[in-house]
Amino acid sequence: MNTEIRPLPKFEYYAPQSLEEAILLLEQNSPWAKLIAGGTDLLPLMKKRMILPRVLIDLSRIKEISFIDLRDSYLHIGAMTNLNEILGSEIVKEKAPILTEAISQLGCSGIRNRATIGGNLCNASPAADTAPPLLVLNASVRLRGPSGERSVPLTELFLGPGQTTLKPDVIMTEVIIPCKDGKSVFLKLGRRRGFTLSIVSAAVFAEIKQGRFERISIAIGAAAPTPLRCYATESALEGKTVTPENIERASLVVRNEVNPIDDVRASAAYRTEMASVLVKRALLKIAKEA
What we know:
Elements: E1 12-14, H1 19-29, E2 33-36, H2 42-47, E3 55-58, E4 68-71, E5 74-78, H3 83-87, H4 90-95, H5 97-103, H6 109-114, H7 117-122, H8 131-136, E6 140-145, E7 148-153, E8 158-160, E9 163-164, E10 171-178, E11 183-189, E12 200-209, E13 212-221, E14 228-229, H9 231-237, H10 244-257, H11 268-289
Parallel strand pairs: 1-3, 2-3
Antiparallel strand pairs: 4-5, 5-10, 6-7, 6-10, 8-9, 11-12, 12-13, 13-14
């Protein structure tokens, strides 16, 4: 086995103090510039020569995009907020417990001290653990670039593995989560019980009234080219009574919505089956707690 440690390729390095400075640097160095947040995904790819930016723009000194705030009925999390900060936040635990649940299973503490929520989303891994919980919470992201600021639903961010709709001169500044009453569950399957990359994950959020699924959101990770909202499965449950039979039927619909691949961690057939199983388990857990 080759144990050679390869150094990082050469690049220019900038550490702007403000968003305006960072956006200007992106404009000046596009398309050869790359943003770096925690570096937990980017630096290993650079060492493997899979990504070779000529310029790195470090966002870690921009304090205005590292925060957790509750404003009216929305939870705002700065894109540069590290995952351990989010995990330890009582506000997040109260208003978006499914996000806390997912992050608690994401990497070790050392990784979470470096990794940021914006980086986890912008990396656009199909297995990104923060994506399914945020999808079921109908989260959006705020973007800023030379032409100004805008908000985009998270469902419109992902294009494919490692690909997003973000333009090269745009920076994600925050994640915005509507606060809603309901029950939620995040389940993750990995190759071992410890902290590991998802083989498949499932997030479910439901509002149950008078024994019926009044509103429900379901998302799957690591079983399609992007984190996936399962709209057909949601439609199979909305308005239906909360029974094991209805949950069983709806969980089977998931199999027709996912589009996984075979890789070293699992086969596509196994991922398809386990996506259905995890959704069923999550729905039964919510039904039991309702």
